[in-house]
Amino acid sequence: MSRTVLRRVGVEDVAQLRRDPLQPRALSVAAEIVEKVRAGGFEAALAEGRRLGDLSEGAVPVHDVAACAAAWEGLERGQRELLARTAERIRRFAEAQRDAVRGLSVQVPGGWAGHEVVPVESAGCYAPGGRFPLPSSVLMTAVTARVAGVERVWVASPKPSPVTLAACAVARADGLLALGGAHAVALLAFGGGPVPRCDVVVGPGNSYVTAAKFLVSGHAGIDMLAGPSELVVVADGTADPDVIAMDLLAQAEHDPEALPVLVALDAGTADAVDAALQAALGSLETSATAGRAVENGFCVVAETLAQAARVCNALAPEHLQLSLADADSLRPLLRHYGALFLGAGACEVLGDYGMGPNHVLPTGGAARHVGGLSVMSFLRLRTWLRIEDVGDADEVLADAAELAGLEGLCAHRLAARIRRRDRGA
To answer: pTM of the full predicted structure?
Structure first.
């Protein structure tokens, strides 16, 4: 077999193959760049952009609202309509999410407690652009931020194409920083020049972008660690091998570090997908990138649905696609994934290109503890408490004073007791 075909591994070996979301070399390189930008601001970020090839001589580093609007007007009508339709689907789904997150109030002894849901003031949205322009990531991040109610939304994307700039206009971004990598993430987090300091930095990226998001997370919020793309397809004999092969390659072409994985429920399905991958790679325009990613991937032949679930849960993949005759039979056994695609029709590509749910998703096993980008990534829950009748709160005040005493915090104890004394208690 060709070396580009998915290698076979056993069910018991899968747990050891789960990726670390942070790569040591990327973390080391990103740390140096982030510190340079923190110390040197806008000019330091531009210097890194020139050094790493983001900015050619005379290239504009920042595109304002007018420039994005001009790019929009310069597109042909069909492209404008395509961006508008995609943005509207993303917006509708995000609005439904926002409507599901509400403030609340609960009666407590002596008064009321509750929370309010409010957006952050500023968001930095990263959209990869090194190998391919990704206006879809602009829409996924910036449209969602606007629906959440974010006041200032900035996009960073290296070497932006006219379509990327136009996507900024559709999403109503306040500007685009024409930089990528760790230096772009750092500038969004710390601010500098025309780029404001952002309260959160979100979006997918390569291992250096992921490392930089981790490094700035003490200064700005981040959505998640979302590195090179991952797709696990669980397939049985009813699946079309050519379709499965193309789904795997659709993820593989993102990045040489992408991870395509097949979990086949029989050896015949695994062999058929192998052959389809070989055939497709021979004519795929992006085979140089996709072929390298396929070498990273692997195939597991599972004897039962329970074994297939064990593999998926061990990997906690970004995307999990169930190409099964009865996808719902496996779903209850699955615990960890960024996004789930049920049945042959629900291909991951629809997730990438704006069916509604967001395509910015956790990788490297991070789906075990965090979900994908949503309006919640830009919202904060702020709690509040109002006591209207201190007498009705007497038991809680007494308990607070006693607990403070147990902890040795005398001012806490007195702060509770003084309210009781004011009533003569």
So the answer is: 0.92
